[in-house]
């Protein structure tokens, strides 16, 4: 960039100091972002981890081996998988079914529906947790994993339908017309032609919803009580809160185990969507 | 409430696209509606349901335990009268405004823009490294980010240790400056989003425009404020609204770092609603706070739709 030959004449001489200045400033900001992250990594390998970031005196896996028990880690992680998978499957299935008529036909209430969806993506869901709790009491859904799954699916649906409709709009309709001529119904056309052509888009939405559910703390925190039902987000919080003096090393190790899948999935989404700006771009509509 | 907002925004009619050409077949309309049914039912039951319930529940004296839990009475606007008379509520509303303005509107947007600009001119390995770090803070589960920042701002945490190197005495940030701490934390956590939005927007600014301005003798700052910013105007307004809406709902970060305290010194509206409903068992009252928060969110969401309107559906 600095040596770009395209930018000749006037701007060329000022490029160099500008690059140096930008790089220094960027490095400083980078350090500020790095420090809290480094704390997690260092503390997780430190037998004597403190709340201050420091290099471990001796690197050890002890924190990891101590938290890797069924009750502390594996069951909560399994619960997270169940909740996130359930949410993602329901959201994608209901989302694809809803996106199809919205993308392919023009219906009278379509515009209202799409605006309603868009409106739903903007609402602060966390503000809804108190009424949701009261509603779940009436439905008898408290402490039900499926209740949590269905609620999270509903809250991720607006965004999912929006994204899926956009992906579906880019599948050419002429292919389906050929199928219709051959006598296929609309659901057959959807299953045989549209879905295979937009599987990358579906993959992106699936992972997107999965990671949202995986990282969600507040919803299961309010709606679930039984410790064997709790996903990792909540059990990690209870673990943190229960001890008078926090075992920081174990907390950090636990955090790494819980966060790692999300980071991996994010990288996967970037690959699937061609590296560009998938999530935020879709939010923009 | 959703219904009214969507109706007013959905007023414009546009001739349909898609395929009206297909010959009519019995039950075709039914099939389309059937296809929309699962999503519609879910949205009605678990999105619209809680919103309607929120409006209604805020008019009752429902409590967590005791007779008022089993048989809540309709008490009209008593919760709201109490709410608007409560200094805690006004403090909380003020804190929410400060939190959103300082961390999202100013912090994330300005830092995100700065990062996007720096990422275009800094040396290459640094770009991907710092960009990756900023995004990593955003990709992490919220609770993990909250732990990391809790440790950072703790009295014996990294920040004070760092200040100690320079002979400065730190303080109990989370106790004496709870809002400042959670604001900085939310900037750390959420800036990646703005950075990515602005990075994409900047890459679409036509280079000819910049070059023309350079030839006309505009300095870097002038080029940025007079050419670049007006061109990416829409991205800015969209991003401002989205970060506002995201920040309005922040709960976990604040809850883990300060618990809304000390007292209610860092209780933004979602935190206050949670405290009132679950710690003090006033579900009806907590629901009233939730309703106010939802209404604020609804207003911003409606503005957001207005801005996007030309390009949707």
Folded structure, characterized:
The complex is a heterodimer of chains A (285) and B (313). Chain A is an all-alpha fold. Chain A has 2 domains: 2-60, no CATH class; 63-284, MetI-like fold. Chain A has 13 helices and no strands. In chain A, helix 7 runs antiparallel to helix 8 and helix 9 packs antiparallel against helix 12. In chain B, helix 5 packs across helix 13 (233-248) and helix 15 runs antiparallel to helix 16 (283-308). Chain B is built from 16 helices and no strands. Chain B has one domain: Orthogonal Bundle (MetI-like fold). At the A-B interface, helix 1, helix 3, helix 4, helix 5 and helix 6 of A face helix 1, helix 2, helix 5, helix 6 and helix 7 of B.
Question: Topology, pairings included?
Answer:
The complex is a heterodimer of chains A (285) and B (313).
Chain A: H1 12-44, H2 62-67, H3 70-104, H4 110-122, H5 129-139, H6 145-169, H7 174-181, H8 186-197, H9 199-215, H10 218-223, H11 232-242, H12 248-272, H13 278-283
Helix pairs in contact in A: 1-12, 3-6, 3-9, 3-11, 4-6, 6-9, 7-8, 9-12, 11-12
Chain B: H1 2-9, H2 28-57, H3 67-70, H4 78-85, H5 87-121, H6 124-139, H7 142-153, H8 158-165, H9 173-176, H10 178-203, H11 207-215, H12 220-231, H13 233-248, H14 252-257, H15 269-279, H16 283-308
Helix pairs in contact in B: 1-16, 2-16, 4-16, 5-6, 5-10, 5-13, 6-10, 10-13, 11-12, 13-16, 15-16
């Amino acid at each position: 960039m600095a040596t770009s030959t395209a930018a000749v004449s006037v701007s060329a001489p000022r490029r160099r100091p500008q690059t140096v200045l930008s790089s220094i400033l960027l490095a400083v900001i980078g350090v500020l972002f790095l420090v809290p992250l480094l704390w997690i990594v260092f503390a997780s390998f430190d037998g004597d981890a403190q709340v201050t970031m420091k290099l471990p005196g001796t690197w050890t896996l002890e924190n990891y081996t101590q938290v890797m028990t069924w009750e502390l880690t594996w069951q909560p992680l399994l619960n997270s998988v169940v909740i996130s998978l359930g949410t993602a499957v329901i959201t994608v299935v209901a989302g694809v079914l809803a996106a199809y008529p919205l993308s392919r036909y023009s219906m009278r209430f379509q515009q209202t529906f799409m605006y309603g969806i868009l409106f739903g993506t903007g609402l602060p869901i966390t503000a809804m947790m108190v009424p949701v709790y009261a509603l779940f009491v009436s439905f008898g859904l408290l402490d039900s994993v499926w209740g949590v799954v269905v609620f999270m699916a509903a809250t991720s649906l607006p965004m999912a339908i929006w994204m899926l409709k956009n992906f579906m709009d880019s599948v050419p309709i002429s292919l389906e017309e050929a199928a219709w001529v051959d006598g296929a119904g609309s659901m057959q056309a959807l299953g045989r032609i549209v879905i295979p052509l937009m599987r990358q888009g579906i993959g992106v939405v699936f992972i997107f919803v999965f990671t949202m559910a995986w990282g969600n703390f507040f919803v299961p925190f309010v709606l679930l009580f039984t410790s064997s039902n709790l996903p990792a987000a909540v059990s990690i919080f209870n673990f943190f809160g229960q001890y008078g003096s926090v075992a920081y090393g174990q907390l950090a190790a636990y955090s790494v185990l819980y966060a790692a899948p999300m980071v991996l999935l994010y990288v996967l989404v970037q690959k699937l969507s061609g590296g560009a700006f998938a999530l935020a771009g879709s939010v923009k509509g | 409430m959703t219904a009214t907002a969507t109706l007013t925004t959905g007023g414009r009619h546009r001739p349909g696209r898609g395929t009206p050409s297909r010959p009519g077949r019995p039950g075709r309309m039914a099939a389309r509606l059937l296809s929309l049914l699962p999503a519609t039912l879910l949205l009605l039951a678990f999105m619209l349901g809680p919103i309607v319930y929120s409006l209604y529940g805020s008019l009752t004296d429902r409590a967590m335990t005791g007779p008022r839990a089993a048989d809540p009475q309709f008490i009209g606007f008593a919760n709201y009268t109490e709410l608007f008379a409560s200094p805690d509520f006004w403090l909380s509303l003020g804190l929410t405004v400060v939190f959103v303005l300082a961390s999202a509107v100013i912090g994330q947007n300005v830092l995100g823009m700065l990062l996007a600009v720096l990422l275009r001119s800094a040396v290459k390995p640094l770009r991907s490294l710092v960009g990756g770090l900023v995004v990593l803070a955003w990709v992490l589960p919220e609770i993990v980010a909250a732990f990391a920042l809790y440790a950072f701002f703790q009295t014996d945490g990294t920040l004070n240790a760092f200040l100690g190197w320079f002979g400065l005495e730190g303080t109990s940030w989370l106790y004496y400056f709870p809002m400042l701490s959670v604001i900085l934390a939310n900037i750390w956590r959420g800036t990646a989003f703005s950075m990515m939005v602005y990075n994409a927007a900047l890459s679409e600014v036509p280079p000819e425009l910049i070059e023309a301005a350079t030839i006309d003798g505009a300095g870097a700052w002038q080029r940025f404020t007079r050419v670049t910013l007006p061109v990416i105007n829409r991205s800015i307004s969209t991003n401002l609204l989205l970060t506002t809406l995201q920040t309005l709902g922040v709960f976990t970060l604040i809850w883990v770092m300060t618990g809304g305290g000390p007292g209610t010194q860092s209780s933004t509206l979602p935190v206050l609603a949670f405290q009132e409903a679950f710690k003090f068992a006033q579900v009806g009252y907590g629901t009233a706070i939730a309703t106010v928060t939802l209404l604020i969110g609804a207003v911003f969401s409606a503005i957001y739709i207005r801005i996007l309107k030309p390009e949707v559906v």
